[in-house]
Specification:
- With 453 residues, the protein is of the alpha/beta class.
- It folds into three domains: 3-83, Up-down Bundle (Four Helix Bundle (Hemerythrin (Met), subunit A)); 96-288, P-loop containing nucleotide triphosphate hydrolases (Rossmann fold), CATH 3.40.50.300; 307-452, Orthogonal Bundle (434 Repressor (Amino-terminal Domain)).
- 58% of the residues lie in helices and 9% in strands.
- It contains 21 helices and eight strands.
- It has helices spanning 3-16, 22-38, 43-57, 67-83, 107-120, 137-147, 161-174, 192-205, 221-233, 249-258, 280-287, 293-304, 311-315, 321-333, 337-344, 352-355, 359-370, 374-378, 385-395, 399-421, 428-452; strands at 96-100, 125-130, 152-153, 179-184, 209-215, 237-241, 263-267, 275-277.
- An eight-stranded mixed beta sheet has the order 3-2-4-1-5-6-7-8, with helices on both faces.
- Strand 2 (125-130), helix 6 (137-147) and strand 3 form a beta-alpha-beta unit.
- It is flat, with a radius of gyration of 25 Å.
- The two termini are 25 Å apart.
- Bound molecules: guanosine-5'-triphosphate and magnesium ion.
- Residues 107-108, 131, 137, 183 line the site of magnesium ion (MG).
């Protein structure tokens, strides 16, 4: 269970109870403490938070809220404060960004993600590989730069990082870059050698931003790392990566908050799109499953400006197997469906195996559908046992694969029925014309209202 689910569990207890007294609050706080400590939040911080909740819980109620709502709200606010407080102002026109950090925390990946972030905001962004220690670093960043379509400079023959930066600045000047990001080498620790190299690079680059890249698995150590790097080379901002894969993300965030470091971005996956501005309230609402319209809308907007849904998909009118397939594909474009749904807090309503429809599975679906008649695709209800056997044989797949396709189809049909029931879409065309985000938003708000009351 992740931190979000555990925190949610603690508040669920409060929401479900008929009677609210000190004893109940004590239990809720104990649940919260367990959740936070399991998420590697420092014990001292957890105790402070508990005390604050305790002392606020039975204070005079603000108008319009009952006791239950009041306690939920203050808990929520205090948690958000502990994880990051008000959103840090992300520099919108950085000129030179230097990324630093120890081994393998995600600097190189973050270089490409940041470049993409600023490119989307209209800044011409370039990248320099100043990691001369790891032989594969040059190629890794070269490839990533190609992927996000930005100018790149590196020199695998030059062993001096500062020299590469000097050359890179000259080269990228010709490209007229507004922003330049420099990826530096990691070491196993922040030792004198690393500090020396970073200082040499900084002397040439003169970065206006130096950002520390830290993996979420650092947990509460993140605070000490942030302070050590800041003292050694001066750090303006932090990027926490692998928020998707570590249960300790909460600890890392809280520890950075405790040292007053600004967490600008979080990395939520290996792809260059798996990157978002960090906003504690939004993050918390998402991991706790309260939905977050804003994050999805931003993501949907960015993606729709990149990729068009094909006209074939637009032509579909009825929900059948063909539309189902087109829909799965369209949803995949928005990133893993599960992630999108999680942002809205509706993830738990959707069957898990459907959220994780893999490329492989999608491909299988396609192969199976190729062995179906047009009539079967338009009206899958007619597919009975003998047809299943025929389709399985024809496609070279197993009978259960065909059943799996039909099962997934029926589940999605149910889901869309629900959407339709909300009066938001009249035809499948609506869905494919990008109304999806609006629709999900509506659903999320409905759930949100439903839950908070
Ligand atoms: N799941 C997940 N993986 C990530 C994230 N960011 C980076 N990674 C992965 O972490 C691994 C290390 O990332 P790099 O970007 O090479 O890390 P680095 O800090 O440049 O490493 P060194 O140059 O060796 O110090 C790669 O496999 C990345 O794909 C993230 O946000 N989520
Ligand atoms: Mg690297």
């Amino acid at each position: 269970m992740g931190l979000g689910e555990k925190l949610r569990g603690a508040l669920e207890r409060l929401r479900k109870s008929t009677f609210i007294d000190k004893e109940l609050i004590g239990e809720v706080i104990k649940d919260l403490q367990r959740a936070l400590i399991a998420g590697d939040v420092e014990v001292q911080l957890v105790l402070e938070l508990s005390k604050k909740i305790e002392s606020e819980a039975f204070k005079e109620l603000p108008s319009g809220l009952d006791r239950r709502q009041h306690i939920i709200k203050i808990t929520y606010d205090l948690l958000a404060e502990a994880l990051g407080g008000a959103k840090a102002e992300i520099p919108q026109k950085p000129k030179r960004i230097l990324l630093v950090g120890t081994f393998g925390h995600g600097k190189t990946t973050a270089t490409a993600k940041i470049a993409k972030y600023y490119s989307k905001r209209g800044l011409k962004t370039g990248a320099i590989c100043a990691d001369t220690a790891r032989p594969a670093a040059f190629e890794q960043l070269q490839q990533l730069s190609g992927k996000v379509k930005i100018p790149f400079y590196g020199n695998p023959k030059e062993k001096n990082a500062a020299a590469v930066v000097r050359q890179g600045l000259k080269e990228l000047e010709k490209e007229k870059c507004d922003a330049i990001i420099v990826d530096s080498a990691g070491r196993s620790a922040l030792d004198s050698e690393l500090v020396k190299e970073i200082k040499e690079v900084a002397a040439i680059l003169k970065p206006d931003q130096t950002w520390l890249v830290l993996g979420a698995d650092t947990g509460q150590i993140a605070g000490k790392q942030a302070k050590a790097f800041h003292d050694a080379v001066g750090v303006n901002g932090i990027i926490i990566t692998r928020m998707d894969g570590s249960a300790k993300g909460g600890g890392a965030l809280a520890a950075c908050r405790a040292t007053d470091s600004n967490v600008y971005f979080i990395g939520t996956g290996e792809k260059t799109d798996d990157f978002e501005e960090f906003d504690a309230t939004r993050y918390l609402s998402r991991i706790m499953g309260y939905g977050d319209l804003q994050a999805l809308l931003e993501k949907a907007e960015e993606i729709s400006s990149e990729e068009e849904i094909s006209p074939e998909e637009l032509m579909q009118k009825e929900f059948n197997l063909e539309t189902f397939y087109a829909q799965l594909k369209a949803m995949k474009k928005m990133g893993p469906l599960g992630k999108v749904m999680d942002m809205l807090g509706v993830g738990m309503q959707i069957p898990k195996d459907m959220l994780e429809t893999s490329e492989q599975k999608l491909e299988n679906f396609k192969i199976i559908m190729d062995s179906m008649t047009g009539q079967e695709k338009r009206n899958p209800e007619i597919v009975d046992r003998s047809r299943i056997l025929r389709i399985a044989r024809g496609s070279g797949k197993k009978e259960e694969d065909v059943r799996d396709l039909l099962k997934n189809y029926r589940r999605m049909r149910e889901m869309f029925k629900q959407f339709r029931g909300m009066g938001e879409i009249k035809s499948m065309e609506d869905l494919q014309k990008g109304k999806m985000q609006k629709l999900f938003g509506k659903l999320a708000m409905k759930k949100k209202k439903f839950r908070i009351r």
